[in-house]
Amino acid sequence: MKVAVVYAAPPQPLQLSCQVEDGSTVEQAIAQSGLLRYCPEIDLKKQKVGVFGKFVKLDSLVREGDRVEIYQRITRVLDEDDDDDDD
C-alpha cells in the first residue's frame, strides 16, 4: 500500500511516498521511506509523530493513503521581558 511520510524540515518541508506492506507500523513506514537518511537530526525517541494531524504512537498501524508526519520539537527562548512575574 502507498503512504506518504512528511517532515517539516527547514527551509522546506520534505515529503516522500513509499510502498509498505499491509500491517506496517508508522515506524516501519518512516524507515521504508528513507527520510531518516535525508534528515539525520530526527530523533524518533524524542519527536512526536502523527497521521493526518493526529498524534499516534510509532507502533500504530498505517492504512492505504495515510500521511505520516514527523513533528518538529518546539523550543522557546525566553528574553528578559518574558518572565513569569506580573511586575
From TrEMBL:
InterPro entries: RnfH. Belongs to the UPF0125 (RnfH) family. It comes from Geopseudomonas aromaticivorans. This is UPF0125 protein KRX52_09925. It holds the Pfam family Ub-RnfH.
